[in-house]
Write a structure and sequence with these properties.
This protein has two domains: 222 residues, 3-Layer(aba) Sandwich (Rossmann fold); 35 residues, no CATH class. It contains nine helices and twelve strands. Strands 6-7-8-3-9-10 form a six-stranded mixed β-sheet, sandwiched between helices. Strands 2-1-4-5 form a four-stranded antiparallel β-sheet, with helices on one face. A two-stranded antiparallel sheet has the order 11-12. It binds adenosine-5'-triphosphate. The site of adenosine-5'-triphosphate has 11 residues, from β2 and α1. Keywords: ATP-binding, Cell membrane, Ion transport, Iron, Iron transport, Membrane, Nucleotide-binding, Transport.
Length: 261
């Protein structure tokens, strides 16, 4: 059985606008973090939502050898989890309840075992002390961490995270990427993460997809894809990549080669 996610001749968009047209992507690996990069409006969220079956789409999607497009939505929702940029407002649950609801939705399991698992995950994310706080009383970053707990507890085969770091401080960005990498590796998940910070992509990504105007510009290992040429072409920035004293490559932006858009 072919492992990983295969995307072939895939088109997605909205009633009046096709955003992704005939996209074919080399297989996305299991057990690794794929970072999805590209400028504002290039179609990253549209692609993730379409992979989750939440946007109109046509074409072929194969998840670990099984076709996704023809699967009933409930089965697909068990296998594929999409975490949007922000959690829906107005949900009157406390943090622990919301994670348990997510757990139940995908495995039907509840009770003491599920509760212990949920608490362990909140602990790992450093938010166990918030377990009994209501979602609408949390800060933006805290909500983002809860969203991540809700997604991870569902144990998906394909985990789609749309800018999961956007509200997190520096320490949490690092910690969360490490945690996502560990879960991804241990549970053999295919994880796709949208980030805008190119240095996070370079440091924590294990595979990179670079999109521009709904088209794939490049894909592969971070150091092969995140190059000054590709950054100039997609983001219009002039950049250089240098290793710091610890040998970790870093991107420095020296200026613009083009105006946005
Ligand atoms: N509901 C919608 N209806 C119609 N067009 C939409 C809708 N949502 C997004 N679009 C359009 O689709 C294109 C891609 O948007 P998308 O949100 O996928 O971009 P993105 O790469 O995630 O951007 P960003 O980095 O700013 O979040 C944009 O031109 C946007 O205007």
């Amino acid at each position: 059985m072919m492992q990983g996610l295969r995307i072939c001749n895939f088109s997605a968009g909205y009633a009046k606008r096709q955003v992704i047209e005939n996209l074919t992507v080399p297989p996305l690996p299991r057990g690794k973090i794929t970072v999805l990069l590209g400028p504002n409006g290039c179609g990253k969220s549209t692609l993730l939502r379409a992979l989750a079956g939440l946007n109109q789409a046509k074409g072929e999607l194969w998840l670990n050898g099984e076709g996704l497009q023809t699967q009933p939505f409930a089965r697909r929702a068990e296998r594929v989890v999409y975490l949007p940029q922000s959690l829906p407002a107005g949900v009157h649950l406390h943090v622990l309840e919301s994670v348990l609801v997510a757990r139940q939705a995908s495995s039907g399991k509840s009770g003491a075992e599920a509760q212990a698992e949920a608490m362990a995950l909140l602990e790992q994310l450093g938010i166990a002390s918030l377990a009994l706080c209501y979602l609408d009383q949390l800060s933006g970053g805290q909500k983002q961490l809860v969203g991540l707990a809700q997604s991870l507890i569902r144990r998906p085969e394909l985990l789609l995270l749309d800018e999961p770091l956007s509200a997190l401080d520096l320490n949490y960005q690092f910690h969360v990427m490490d945690l996502i990498a560990r879960e991804t590796r241990q549970r053999h998940i295919i994880t796709v993460v949208v980030v805008h910070d190119i240095n996070i992509a370079l440091r924590h990504g294990e595979h990179v997809l670079l999109l521009l105007n709904g088209e794939l510009i490049d894909s592969g290992e971070p150091a092969q894809v995140i190059t000054p040429e590709n950054l100039a072409r997609t983001y219009g920035v002039q950049s250089r990549i240098e290793c710091c004293s610890r040998g970790i490559p870093q991107v420095f932006i020296d200026g613009l080669v083009a105006r946005p858009g």
